[in-house]
Design goal:
globular; 44% helix; 12 strands; 7-stranded mixed beta sheet; 2 domains; alpha/beta; Aspartate Aminotransferase, domain 1; Aspartate Aminotransferase, domain 2; single chain; 3-stranded antiparallel beta sheet
């Protein structure tokens, strides 16, 4: 019996799953695929963090159920990080909670605060969970176009935000922010955050800020936290992940902090659906936040070097793009001769003709369809190998287009929408 489940009907196939299908099909044909598709760090977790995990896991007492709010030591370490990095004071009992990665925290908070039909304001393009966490919870999404430039959002963002609130019925419940941004690498400053906090406090709108890439920056000063704005905790909660900063993606550990009511709502939801991350992982995460921090600079330097090789190589191939000031991504506009293919069509072309996998921009929202996202997850040697193939690909657009037309009926690559 075929059944269409209500919530599943609202979810298109996940963009990264689709990219993975494309890669798997090519690899099954024996092709060597150079993979820029996912933001999946490839460097080793720092040794002192691994050693703390191993030490802790040897104690059988740590194998029992953990605490859905997070162990007290990790919550104190979270507050210590915020004090050192942002000079923000937090109460570890009421204003901080451990999550099983920031993605889980965002999704569970969406479930906790959303009623069917609520309106949530979400940037577009943006990381999929920012919108789909609320779609799963039954919300209606109103997109806030954020542009694709990598400078700080300007007056146009506040104009779009004001229009969205004025024309929304019912009044929006929450606004999602993400700076440094995935996928665009856009950054924000404290003046921008101050305007948003004042606006949302006036209108009674919660702010969910995602700063997963706060430590992956290259140009300019360290990105700020929205919680640095006076009175931000009246409306704002902030999510962070250890995945990128400490090369711990598979460990699935992050946290949320800020507004006591939102943290409490997330804690209540989590108390019903999980027992928290495995305790040894939380102890190791505590060691990450409290221990030596030189590893962060090493990770930052790694991504900077890869960024420079990729951007300079694409530019020399005739690809016009900006150099991202932060994150582990390059957000690249589709070159003019191929723009009519759209991001999915051009991603297929790069995979077929160059053996290079990227994330099509449409997977991050309709305003991303003129772009591709490159994840800085291949070493410099592999990146240069990809660039040689791309340069040859770009040298004769008309021949490539004829080849693409001949292959357009191929079923080798599934579309995002089925």
């Amino acid at each position: 019996m075929e059944t269409e489940f209500h919530r599943i009907k609202r979810l298109p196939p996940y963009v990264f799953a689709e990219v993975n299908k494309m890669k798997a099909a090519a690899r099954a044909r024996g092709e060597d695929i150079i993979d820029f598709g996912m933001g999946n760090p490839d460097s080793a977790t720092p040794q002192h963090i691994v050693e703390k995990l191993v030490e802790t896991v040897r104690d059988p007492k740590t194998h029992r159920y953990s605490n859905s709010r997070g162990i007290p030591g990790l919550r104190k370490a979270i507050c210590g990080y915020y004090k050192r990095r942002f000079d923000v004071d937090l109460d570890p009992e009421r204003e901080a909670i451990v999550t099983i990665g920031s993605k889980e925290g965002l999704a569970n908070l969406a479930q906790a605060i959303t009623s069917p039909g609520d309106i949530i304001l979400v940037p577009n393009p943006s990381y999929p969970i920012h919108a789909f966490g609320f779609i799963i919870a039954g919300a209606a999404i109103r997109s806030i176009p954020v542009g694709n430039q990598q400078t700080c959002p300007g007056p146009e963002f506040m104009d779009a935000l004001e229009r969205a609130v004025r024309h929304s019925v019912p009044k929006p419940t929450a606004l999602v922010l993400n700076y440094p941004a995935n996928p665009t690498a856009q950054v924000a400053d404290l003046d921008f955050y101050g305007e948003v906090v004042d606006f949302c406090r006036y209108h009674g709108i919660y702010i969910l800020s995602d700063i997963a890439y706060a430590e992956i920056y290259f140009d300019g000063g360290p990105p700020p936290s929205i919680l640095q704005v006076p009175n931000a905790k009246d409306v704002a909660v902030e999510f962070y992940s250890l995945s990128k900063t400490y090369s711990m993606p598979g460990w699935r550990v992050g946290f949320a902090c800020g507004n006591e009511k939102l943290v409490g709502a997330l804690a209540r939801m989590k108390s019903y659906v999980d027992y928290g991350a495995f305790t040894p992982i939380q102890v190791a995460a505590t060691a990450a936040l409290n221990g030596p921090q030189e590893c962060i600079g090493e990770v930052r330097a790694l991504y900077r070097d890869r960024r420079d090789v990729l951007v300079e190589g694409l530019q020399s191939a005739g690809w016009s793009l900006e150099t991202p000031p932060a994150t582990m991504f390059v957000w690249a506009p589709i070159p003019e001769p191929f723009k009519d293919l759209g991001s999915l069509g051009f991603a297929k072309a790069l995979l077929r003709e160059c053996g290079v996998a990227v994330a099509p921009g449409v997977g991050f929202g309709e305003y991303g369809d003129d772009y591709l996202r490159f994840g800085l997850i291949e070493n410099k040697h592999r990146t240069r190998q990809a660039l040689r193939a791309i340069k040859g690909f770009m040298s004769d657009p008309e021949a490539i287009r004829r080849n693409l037309l001949q292959n357009e009926t191929s079923n080798s690559f599934p579309a995002l929408e089925e």
